[in-house]
């Protein structure tokens, strides 16, 4: 699913969101991969929550920029989001969210606008639904299930 490149942020709101993602990237703690990522998540309240990747010597305990932004937002009471901008230092192409981040974002809705932003401030726009087409969402927990006690 190739998308057209948006040459510059088309609105002041997106310019601010992209700038916040670039700013967050500069705070990244990534001594092992040297792969900086920044994310800026726009809450329905109009506030931008920034996040950066935070690595750990125990690699599995690293936290991605997108999940850092989500944790910050939720811990401050925001649970409804409209847009996220994600950027890295990759010069060609765009860096998308990993599977864990996509699933974590899906917890809060699949209609989220996901902007992948390169260092030149060019972007590509996707919806979360497009990049996570068969998402496991909270309503899946309400589906009828067999009893756990049934053994055949």
TrEMBL record:
It comes from Adineta ricciae. It is an enzyme of class 3 (hydrolase). Pfam families: dCMP_cyt_deam_1 (PF00383). It comes from the Eukaryota. Its EC number is 3.5.4.5. It catalyses: 2'-deoxycytidine + H2O + H(+) = 2'-deoxyuridine + NH4(+); cytidine + H2O + H(+) = uridine + NH4(+). Residues 12-139 form the CMP/dCMP-type deaminase domain. Substrate binds at residues 53-59. This enzyme scavenges exogenous and endogenous cytidine and 2'-deoxycytidine for UMP synthesis. The keyword Hydrolase applies. InterPro entries: APOBEC/CMP_deaminase_Zn-bd, CMP_dCMP_dom, Cyt/Deoxycyt_deaminase, Cyt_deam_tetra, Cytidine_deaminase-like. CDD domains: cytidine_deaminase. Zn(2+) binds at residues 64, 98, 101. SUPFAM superfamilies: Cytidine deaminase-like. The keyword Transport does not apply. Keywords: Hydrolase, Metal-binding, Zinc. One of its GO terms (cellular component) is cytosol. GO terms for biological process: nucleobase-containing small molecule metabolic process; pyrimidine-containing compound metabolic process. One of its GO terms (molecular function) is cytidine deaminase activity. Its cofactor is Zn(2+). This is Cytidine deaminase.
């Amino acid at each position: 699913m190739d998308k057209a490149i948006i040459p510059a942020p088309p609105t002041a709101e997106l310019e601010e969101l992209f700038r916040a993602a670039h700013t967050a990237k500069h705070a990244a703690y990534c001594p092992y991969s040297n792969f900086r990522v920044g994310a800026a998540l726009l809450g329905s309240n109009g506030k931008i929550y920034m996040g950066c990747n935070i690595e750990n010597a125990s690699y599995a305990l690293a936290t991605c920029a997108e999940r850092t932004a989500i944790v910050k937002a939720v811990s401050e009471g925001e649970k409804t989001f409209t847009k996220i901008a994600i950027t890295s230092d990759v010069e060609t192409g765009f860096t998308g969210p990993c599977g864990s981040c996509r699933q974590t974002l899906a917890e809060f809705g699949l209609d989220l606008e996901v902007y992948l932003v390169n260092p030149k401030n060019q972007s590509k726009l996707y919806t979360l639904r497009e990049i996570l087409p068969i998402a496991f969402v909270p309503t899946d927990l309400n589906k009828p299930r067999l009893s756990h006690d049934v053994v055949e």
